[in-house]
């Protein structure tokens, strides 16, 4: 039986893989003045709070295949909601709480707060391809445990489709490595009847993919 416990935030080494979600924390700089953004910036008007997908519920997992299918879908939804927050309204990251718990939720709140504070404007989105190295285990909550209720997804996280600009329109210079292996831990919560992302594991050293 595999029991997963909470991980403390590792703010000192947030996402060595720079990209859609960590640009403000790694000392990137603007390009020369006058350089335009590669894609159009969002309108300056106030945008509504992004809404997480309302239909994310699923029956308790009964097999490895079931767990992989539904945990992968939940991971993709987590990234979709995260990207929507960054593009539409980083000042309000509350929607992530509908798809994530613990470290994975805190991670988004912290980075979104930093993005809003720095005045960075995001466009585009990342992609995540789950690899065969992913595993399924059992999640224990107190004295209760459920088979096939924990998944550690290993995948190629590609941020080449995302970009940032400063408030003045100057482009944020990204690091040359835009893809790498990222692990996400997901758990099935019977109380919510859905999979939730619990940990978004940023590596010490980027392993390209």
Automatic annotation (TrEMBL):
Secretion signal, residue range per the UniProt entry: 1-33
Region: Disordered, residue numbers: 35-68
Keywords for the protein's UniProt record, in alphabetical order: Signal
Biased composition (Polar residues): 38-48
Protein name (record): DUF3828 domain-containing protein
């Amino acid at each position: 039986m595999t029991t997963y416990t909470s991980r403390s935030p590792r703010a000192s080494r947030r996402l060595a893989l720079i990209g859609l979600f960590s640009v403000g924390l790694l000392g990137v700089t603007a390009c020369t003045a006058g350089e335009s953004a590669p894609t159009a910036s969002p309108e300056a008007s106030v945008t509504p709070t992004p809404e997480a997908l309302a239909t994310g519920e699923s029956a308790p997992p009964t097999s490895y295949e079931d767990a992989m299918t539904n945990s992968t879908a939940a991971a993709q939804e987590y990234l979709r909601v995260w990207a929507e927050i960054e593009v539409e309204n980083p000042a309000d990251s509350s929607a992530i709480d509908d798809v994530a718990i613990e470290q994975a939720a805190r991670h988004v709140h912290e980075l979104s707060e930093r993005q809003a504070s720095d005045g960075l404007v995001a466009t585009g989105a990342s992609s995540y391809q789950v690899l065969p190295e992913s595993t399924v285990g059992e999640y224990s909550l107190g004295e209760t445990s459920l088979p096939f209720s924990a998944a550690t997804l290993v995948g190629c996280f590609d941020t080449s489709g995302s970009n940032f600009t400063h408030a003045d329109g100057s482009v944020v210079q990204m690091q040359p490595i835009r893809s790498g292996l990222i692990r996400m831990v997901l758990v099935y919560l019977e109380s919510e009847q859905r999979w939730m992302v619990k940990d978004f594991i940023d590596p010490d050293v980027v392993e390209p993919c």
